[in-house]
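Objective 1b: paired records.
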Amino acid sequence: MPGTLALLHTSPVHVPVFEALRDTDHPGLALRHLVYEDLLARARDAGPEAVQGEIQALLAGAVAEGASAVLCTCSTIGGVAESAAAALGVPVLRVDRPMAADAVGRGRVVVLAALADTLAPTLALLAEEAGDRAADIRTVLVEGAWARFEAGDRDGYLELVAAAADRVADADVIVLAQASMADAVTRTVTRIPILSSPRPGLAAAAAAAH
């Protein structure tokens, strides 16, 4: 019998995305959404470690209320969330790890991010997944995209991300560093494979919640 999967978000936009993926891919899986927008703001100001204690307390509360696994959908604080697993006694997954594992096996990687603060955690994750393999990884910050996201202009945000993807050359795979970028894939014309994190991330977390 599957347990409840708690999802830690730093934006409410992720809730319908993961609800829809659950309905399509994992019917019957119980989701509990924890939305704390201020965690990202403070992680950006003072570094992800600044919110480590608060994240641990939030996740401990979710586990006490029945969560059998946790998925963090924010790339910036994903590593900090993962580190809470030992103390909580349940799996804690970051949404972008399965995507990163897939990407580093494909050759030359270009990472697109809308938020500069996401780049360092994403590069560290890719390096970790690459292990001893040499990894050719470049990054592109999508100028102006995050301002549109914060303004609630989802279409404008996704159009900028898609345009940035279409400008990528000399790559074997494009990685969308943030879960909120996933729908940009439907707006691109590039033939380079594009990886996004929500579907593989939820699949891994659903398996862990069982």
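Objective 1b, second protein:
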Amino acid sequence: MARKEDSENNPGRLKQIALTYKMTRRADRKIGLILAGVGLVTFGVLLAVGFLIGHPVYAGVLGVMLALLAMAIIFGRRAERAAFGQMEGQPGAAAAVLENIGRGWTVTPAVAMNRSQDVVHRAVGRPGIVLVAEGNPNRLRSLLASEKKKMARVVADVPVHDFTVGDDEGQVELKKLRTRLLKLPRVLTGPQTTQVNDRLRAMGDLMSNMPIPKGPMPKGMRMPRGQGGR
């Protein structure tokens, strides 16, 4: 019974693709025409080459495979762009990006937050510690400074990078956040990264020490004194 329920609750791969296509089409109305054009052009070019070299059948088969591959690549990129477009401006969007950054990173959402719901997330990887802030830039300065000071007590010898998500000068666009993190120079070994994580866990974080309910923070909720920015 459990297996049957799992199979019913988890949509198949084709259904997932269909759902992703529908989501993408809401933000990108031309996605169907673009994919069709990419597929036809790729297949047409390979087929033309096949006629020129005297092997249209082989080139045609190769053209179909390459056309499907090209369509999948374009679809993936445009679907990702549409997803970022829908997430931008939403609370916790940066945390969602960090959670999908890939292997080798340990992400802790909302290690610091103030009563205005400006928030700082933490990611630890081979480049060191990365603090990602989202909210009002002016209020985030003090929030980031406070978090850096707190971490310096236990990981003073580890590089700390900070980014503020946004579209203004000096900020990082949400869609470029993952790329910026992956381009950071790697200075720690695997064991050193694990050690840093252990030390940070021992220090604790805001979400583990505060009785904040899961999900969106209720409007009007007051932060305990001594926590968050002023």
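Residues 56-87 form the longest helix (32 residues). The CA atoms of residues 84 and 175 lie 6 Å apart.
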